[in-house]
Amino acid sequence: MKPYSRILITGAAGRLGTELRKGLGHLAEHIRLSDRVAVEDLQPNEEMVVCELGDYKAVMDLTKDVDAIVHFGGAPLETDFETILDSNIRGSYHIYEGARQNGARRVIYSSSVHAIGYHEMTAQIDADAPVRPDSLYGVSKNFVESLGRLYWDKFGIESLCLRIFSSFPEPADRRMLWSWLSFADCVQYVERGLSAPRVGYTIGHGLSDNRLKPVDDSKAGHIGFVPRDTAEGFRDAVEARTAPADPKSPSVQFIGGWFCELGHPDDEAKK
Predict the structure, then answer these.
(1) Which InterPro entries does this entry report, sorted A to Z (predicted)?
(2) 167, 206 in Cβ contact below 8 A?
């Protein structure tokens, strides 16, 4: 018998949602997928719901009869505030309210390094470090992390807020030689979050076993994630094709990288 009857995955058509579909199917009898666009290659145990997370009624229907929610939906990068507000802030509130009203007891949320992006590379922070968002996108991640804290303390809904750093097929630049989270390690972390006997409220930091570790993830040790991949095998190729960045630039000094050099997105939209 599988651990779950039905798991909901939001953002299922995205880069990481596609990988999660492959890696989590063995945990549930049924997988409900959601995104703004349809997934076409549905597997026998999958169902697809096209849904805007900012639509309260639609999300209440989306979250019916699910035991756990893997919430990877929302705007994936810095963008205008109205989009952040609707997709990330309002949409995530709807997800947690759907969990509360419909009886889902665990949420795995894709938070981000950008919730803590203005910590210096040398700070060696852990899950108890104060939030230091580097963008409106990062602020939205702070909001949802706080939402998860509230819904655990007040309503008993468990949350793993997984701060993902850089999850791509392989490291694309020198920063990713330390910030990379392989697809397999990302799926493993989420799987552990769904399988752990107790999650409570946990902040995890999604990094593979890379040489430089600016964040201590030991306070999420009870989840049981042990990275299996490393960026080291890509180092020579990445360093050969990319020049070192200015060590005094914010993108090098802070763990948020190039997000720390962005202006206000609403100013950019007016140009």
Answers:
(1) Epimerase_deHydtase, NAD(P)-bd_dom_sf
(2) yes
Q: What is the mean pLDDT of each run of 10 residues along the chain (271 residues)?
A: 96 97 96 96 96 97 98 96 97 98 98 98 97 98 98 98 98 97 98 98 98 96 98 97 94 97 86 62
Q: Identify whether 118 is a catalytic site residue.
A: no
pTM of the model: 0.97
Helix, strand, coil percentages, rounded to 5, for the chain = 40, 20, 40
Per the residue annotation, which of 137, 151, 189, 201 is the catalytic one?
Answer: 137
Cβ neighbours of 43 (radius 10 Å): 12
C-alpha torsion sign, points 103, 106, 110, 113 = positive
Query: Mind listing the domains of the chain with CATH numbers?
Result: 4-270 (3.40.50.720)
**DSSP per residue over 104-115, as a string?**
--EEEEEEEGGG
Q: In what order do the strands lie in the sheet with 158-164?
A: 46-50, 28-35, 4-10, 68-71, 106-112, 158-164, 201-206
Comparing CA positions, the residue from 11, 12, 167 lying closest to residue 88 is 11
Angle of helix 183-195 relative to helix 15-24, nearest 10 degrees, comes to 50
Instruction: Name the strand (E) or helix (H) holding 62.
Output: helix 56-62
Closest CA to 185 of 205, 158, 211, 213: 205
Task: Please name which of 115, 148, 113, 149 lies closest in space to residue 132, comparing C-alpha atoms.
Answer: 115
HSE at residue 195, side-chain half, CA atoms within 13 A, is: 15
